[in-house]
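hi! just following up on the protien thing from before. the input was this:
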Amino acid sequence: MTRIEGSVALVTGGRRGLGRAFVDELLRRGATKVYATARRPEPTADDRIDTIPLDVTDPGSVAAAAARAPDVDIVVNNAGTLHPAPLLKAEMNDVITTFDTNVFGPLRVAQAFAPVLAANGGGALVDIHSVLSWGAGAAAYGASKAAFWSLTNSLRLELTAQHTQVVGVHLGFADTDMVAGLAVDKIDPKLVALAVFDGVERGEHEVLVDEVTRQVKAALSGPVEGLALPIG
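and the predicted 3d structure came back as:
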């Protein structure tokens, strides 16, 4: 269980979409400071928000962010990218970029910030996955989220000794610019943030945000044909 009131947090991709909702909810719950990262951050009038540059695909940028934020208790691995082309038609460079951003990027962040979290008592690492971690039909994005889920489960074991709570978050489609072109039901990012940080404060290791996610996870015990998701 990680207490948010009085904490210091860092949210990757924290200036738009889900990331912005996470920053707002952390502050609403009493975080004293939130580092909100972006590749090209812009200043904010809220002195509780420290906007810092971070490109999760650049090891030097990740190291610089960790050096700038030595007081962090909570890290939210939220930054991601989506290239929706089917696997057999996808540009290989797009597939590589997807994995570099969605898998290797959060691992770089975890490696850089694990010593920071340990020095500050353990804290929490929150990894934002997707229902597409388990469902078929989302091409490179879904494959990257599946790999990220596996990575999170291993990190949970490795970080146990330093008392870091590792939380894997799965959800359907949040109403953000990234999925604006998809004709699917979408959830308000504010509701996602509520569910995530309720789970963090309850000491949970996995948060299933919505009903579609709970249904798909339950289907993992059935035939693989049941994992195909309608994505329009």
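The longest strand covers residues 33-38.
The chain has a mean pLDDT of 91.
cheers
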